[in-house]
Amino acid sequence: MAPRPEGTRHPRLLAVLGDPVEHSLSPPMHNAAFRATGLPFTYIAVRVGPGELRRAVDALRVLGARGANVTVPHKEAAAQLAEWLSAEAREAGAVNTLVFEEGRVLGYSTDGAGFCRALDEVAHFDPAGRRVVLLGAGGAARAVALALAARGAAAVRVVNRTQERARALVERILASGRGTEARACPWPQDTPGWEDVLRGGDLVVQATSLGLARSGPDPWRDLPFQVTAGTALATDLIYGPGGSPFLRAAARAGLRTLAGDWMLLYQGAEAFRLWTGVEAPVALMRSVLDRLLKGGSDVGKAHGAHLSG
Ligand SMILES: NC(=O)c1ccc[n+]([C@@H]2O[C@H](COP(=O)([O-])OP(=O)(O)OC[C@H]3O[C@@H](n4cnc5c(N)ncnc54)[C@H](OP(=O)(O)O)[C@@H]3O)[C@@H](O)[C@H]2O)c1
Fold it and tell me: Where does shikimate bind (predicted)?
């Protein structure tokens, strides 16, 4: 287990840093796991505005924190800030887990492993040889794309609003040398455009933050999922009470679906192990998520702090 600083009586701090972050179920999930294992940590959500990540990380270090999770929109900035990167984080150029170790900031990416564990254990979907349609090219999308390439995906179509970012991810996939084909696609403006990008896909991954705010019109309602492969699986990294509009639209078209809270669980379990050196109590963490997602609790607010520029 990670050592506690000399003289510390209180639990060591961990935090998820992002904007928005109020929706995050990481605080109750991790705090339940710390209570169950008797480990001396406490985990909070802190809203960190654009350009404020370094200030937030410095503040956590002053407070003697053990580390942090980093979420939208800071994963790429976290990779720049870390003084050491794991192989996965270096390849993806994105960090979702920071560990503060002997005065250094270590950066890890547990998103790809968490995503693939959910594919394996929950959806029983082997990505080897499959065609992936990936919506998004941000920090989470990068980690997922590189993990899928490492698992032998045949092709990844990167569909992103900002083409430069899509092209940068394609370059990373090709540079990984796994033999995965990769192509950047513009964000479609109409149904025929969506048919072109979705056609023949075996796995459709929604990895943008579009819809995270849960207000306004449903952007996914009319997506022509029926042009995907007959046995296609759809997954949305966004999770929350009431489920995902993206997955509801996919299910209406007959696709199998995998909810993003499974990725949350498994990426969190890996982060827990990095901070504590102890295997995470996954079944207990799953039961916490089930309770909160079913209950529709606005739990993030109760745990949230706010730091924005
Ligand atoms: N379930 C889990 O465990 C888990 C883990 C990680 C992340 N996530 C979720 O995954 C999502 C992405 O996270 P991230 O860290 O990758 O964020 P990020 O680095 O900020 O990337 C955001 C992505 O969303 C796209 N986007 C944002 N607004 C859009 C809009 N109005 N129309 C089209 N595209 C839009 C961005 O496109 P541009 O490049 O054009 O800006 C970019 O591709 C978030 O919702 C996050 O909560 C879930």
Answer: 24-26, 71, 96, 111, 239, 267
Q: Identify whether 294 is a catalytic site residue.
A: no
- Is 301 touching ligand 1 by the criterion CB < 6 Å? no
- Contact call for residues 266 and 238 (beta carbons, < 8 A): no
Q: Considering only CA atoms, which of 197, 243, 247, 198 is closest in space to residue 221?
A: 247
Q: Which residue has the higher pLDDT, 306 or 123?
A: 123
Question: Residue 167 has which token pair?
Answer: 């092209």
Dump pLDDT digits (tens) for 53-79.
Answer: 999 999 999 999 999 999 999 999 999
Annotated binding-site positions for NADP(+): 136-140, 160-165, 237, 260
Q: What's the CA-to-centroid distance between 255 and ligand 1, angstroms?
A: 22
Specify the pLDDT at position 214: 66
Domains within the chain, CATH numbers bracketed: 12-110+262-307 (3.40.50.10860), 112-260 (3.40.50.720)
CA-to-CA distance for 61 and 90, rounded, in angstroms? Answer: 23
Strand order in the sheet with 203-206: 181-186, 155-160, 131-135, 203-206, 233-236, 256-259
**Do residues 15 and 60 touch, judged by C-beta distance below 8 A?**
yes
For residue 59, how far is its CA from the centre of ligand 1 (angstroms)?
Answer: 25
- Which residue matches tokens 């990779």? 79
For the stretch 172-204, pLDDT in tens is: 999 999 999 999 999 999 999 999 999 999 999
**Residues 6+ away with beta carbon under 8 Å from 58:** none
